[in-house]
Design a protein that fits this description.
heterotrimer; A mainly alpha (371); B mainly alpha (314); C alpha/beta (510); A: 371 residues; two-stranded antiparallel sheet; 14 helices; 4 strands; 4% strand; globular; B: 314 residues; ABC transporter involved in vitamin B12 uptake, BtuC; 15 helices; 69% helix
Chain lengths: 371, 314, 510
Amino acid sequence: MTTRRFVVQPRGLAPLRVTLLVPLLSVLAALLVGALFLALTGNSPWSVYSKMVDTAFGSSRGVSETLISATPLILTGVAAAVAFKMLVWNIGGEGQLLFGAISAAGVGIWLGDGTPAALAMPAVILAGAAGGAVWASFAAVPRVYLGTNEIITTLMLNFIALNLMNYLVLGSFSPWRDPESTQFPQGRPIPEGARIPEFFNRLDYGIFVAVGVAILAWVLIVRTRWGFEVRVVGDSAEAARYSGIKVPRKILGVFLFSGAAAGLAGSLLVAGILGKMDPRSLDLGLGFTGIIVAALARLNPLAVIPVAVLMGALNNAGPALQSIGVPSATVRMLQGAILVFAVAGEFFIANRVVRPEKLVATTPATGDAAA
Amino acid sequence: MNDSVLILTIFAAIGLGTPLVFATVGEILTERSGVLNLGVQGMMLVGAVAGFWATFKTGNVFLGVIAAIVAGAAISLIHGFSSVTLRVSQIVSGLALTIFGTGLSEFIGRAGTPALVGSPSRATFSPILEGGIADWPIVGPLIFGHDVLVYLSWLVVAGASYYLFHTKLGLSLRAVGEDPASADAAGVNVTRYRYAHVVLGGALSGLGGAYFSLVLVPSWQDDLIGGAGWIAIALVIVASWRPWRALFAAYLFGAAGRVNFTLQTLEISAPSNLLAMIPFVLAIVAMLVLTSGKRARLLGAPAALGVPYAREQR
Amino acid sequence: MTLRSESPALDLRGISKAFYGVKANDDVDFELRQGEVHALLGENGAGKSTLCSIIAGLYRPDTGTMHVYGEPAHFRSPKDAFAAGIGMVYQHFRLVNNLTVAENMVLGNADLRMRYSDVDIERQTHEIGNRYGLPVDPQARIWQLSVGEQQRVEILKQLQRNARILILDEPTAVLTPQESDQLFRTVRQMADEGRAVILVSHKLHEIKQVSDRVTVLRHGRRVGEPVATADATPRELAAMMVGHDLVLPTRDPNEHLGDVVLSIQDLRVRNDRGLEAVRGVSLDVRRGEIVGIAGVAGNGQRELAYAIAGLRRPVAGTIALDGVDITGTSVTSRIARGIGYVPQNRLGMGLAPGLTTEENLGLKAYRKPPFSRGPFLVPKTFKDVGAQLIDEYDIRGVRPGLPIRLLSGGNLQKALIAREVTQQHSVLVARSPTRGLDVGATGAVRNLLLRERDGGVGVLLISEDLDELLALSDRLLVLFEGRIVGELTSDEADPARLGLLMAGHVEETA
């Protein structure tokens, strides 16, 4: 008897508890793997994890710092979620964030001290979004009009933006560099008037901009005609062309929106917590962490918000680990492991693994014949 | 003549190009099986740190190389499982591998006592075939006087090329990457081929990473390899999935990465940050030229690249 | 393994196999004797291909046993099936397009040496082709071959592996009637040599022509015992296949022939490779008639349909709708002007697989109220209109929030046609609208097309299925290599004449 022990059955639509449980289990599994590595290197996983929770959420200051770390991640998370959902592989959130920061700082410095805050602040913030979109367009335009593989171009643009930022501050005497910093080059501060005010410890109002963009992304995709067309394109470009949707324009729009969101993350950092374009504080892999956020949020812009807070908490806790002799890279390893498990978890959201006798019909077997 | 700028540049290009050769040929073999692995960067970093760690512990650089190969192969299994068995998006799975590998390498580099970061290199590879023959005009410095891994990389290229185009396994591999359903129906085990070549790619990436930590740098620090892993993925396309072309493309990018050095030799000064962009700009230009429009089809990408195969899917 | 002459070539007992929770095979018994041609008859979706794929080792049954020449067999992959002497020619050929004929011949063959030379394998291919009177060019790449030639490679591949049991899955689906006759001679010859052949088909005349016995499948189950072909009439077989006497709807003469609604002049269209695939086609479609376009796949049907739908700009020629030239207009404008299009690729082109049924039903009307207001969608309209169409067109299996791809083929097609015909329209282009559907769904789709015609719409039916064309068309045009090589009225048309035209034999005009 050749009876099979397990059968993989694709689900039509996973029940809500599965879609919630799988990401949660991904995080738990990653923590277990992390515990293994910590134990192997002679650290106590328990004390490391409790230190992390304490740093991220144990005090009002901890919470505000966690939210500060979450702000750019909401935006890079939305950037990745929106793009990936449409099968636009924008891996360039990193570069778009950096170029957004360059643009924002540039506009802030160019406007100078005299500009009223009501003008300077929006100008700096929007400059970041525009910069991110411009940087994305270098990959988006060739992708849309020539079919150029965007995975590689967006990746390469990350390194170019990074080197450009370093050049502007560390490698030259550009307007972005603080002329007073000679020994250790620093970014030139933007005018105080262009800075976003703080309201909860060091947390500034930028977080509301980030949350607003996440909500906007959701509304655009789910509730508008444009979003409907974009969803058709993401599902099947053939079906989109067939129903008269201009596919190139939609892909371009999604790509630029994604770039703008990542660029906005850069300008909120410059106009918010940093106050200048500081290469050391910007080169943190926020774009890549955004991909983790998006994957764990299952590409849903609204789910990006809580997931970004979780990742922000990890980022916030990293440096504190050094005080107990554990490398802050522990956090990066954990985040990577979370993504690995979240990706694998997609299989269990898409499929049921069951014994053959428990197979259930997902489609009526006699739908045709009875018609 | 042998110390002309051109010869010196090529010699330097071979050095910087060698890790790219390993990683690119590895990724070619993986992609020929129809699996896109964007985890090269992560696998190289894990290989680099593992190679440095083993050499640091044992003082034996050959053990370091073996550790790098094993580590690269081991971590590639994550992608193999996700993309072949679970059939999730290969793009996202590869990115996950890179992000995890990067974090893991940083963790390993700092978690032990003493930390690998800042530790001195205990052994490296030295050039072989030096002396008389290496002084032959032009060919001498180009062919002789490299370290043993450079010669190994040439063997890998030749072997991979012969394997792909002149052996039964290579024929089956190409069929799996082109049309897994047909290969399967012809009796080729698609799953086994895909796993094997993901792991082979991981091993070669690990080896490529170790070339940084054992020969080029040689030491360990965070993000030691720059963007070499990403460049390797671009090189696969530049090389149109052919090992010999990968060799020359890797050296071209090696030269691009060494423009700094060349300009120094010529006593020209230029900002290093801008020079560091050159390989990445070159990669974009290559993509624009090669993968745009109708030319993309002539490149000969495996037709089933990135597409999961499920036999019983209808 | 000792060959006992009394044991059957194949003996399957109690085979079950489910996909997506639906049983494709349910407790099926099947026996194949040595030296016979055994037809496996059943309509689309009856489980024939699944059963064959199980025999060929591609699918593993959920339950059941199999014996090959009396020995128990547990195949884990096609490789195991080869070793047992079983070879299968799939309906969709399993050849690697970018490899050469010779490379495909040896692919996966256990006898191939680890290091081989191209010259050797090309010589072997040449020899085996000659031995069986099926010549092929060993150096050609598969994509360069015609469909008939590709099938030849598939059969040779199995012969080279000494397959003693050969499975042919719907082998004539892509052939002209004349090519089919040639194939059947080869099949007969193979059986006479002592091989056992399973012939999968849903065409009764083929089964009568070539097979010794017939096993009928319906809804995944075997119907009765296998019967000797000679003892069964086509009518009896049809009844076994369908379950009851079911007559498909056919055309009555059209009574309200109106004005020309679609007029095409000297149309030239390129294919994906940049070659001209439609090479000077002119035709008219009147309101209230169904014009059938017959032809073997790949003779320009796709490009012709694309050009009419606005998906591909023609190189030359004009397309006019109600006398207005629309050659240069966009897809959107053609939708608005009233061209409905039912593409061959219903899931992926006609329907977006991952969207819900309601969203798909709104896929052409969403731009205007009541589906959208300003830039925003109106979800309630999608829901209400969706519910109404689902009810009116009897689309089954729809559940809220589920992607449409989970529907069966027949229900997908009903949804697609429902959407197309509820747009304001005067022309309907339909490509192979009943392909892959079972008898019930085929009848429903045919009725919808006839209702369109009677409602005064001009229908252009582009199909490779002669039965479908003959049953529905008021006029038939034959497309061969991008040209119209013949026009027949419904009275003049018969399969033999059409077959000749489809193969490029242009009739002498008297």
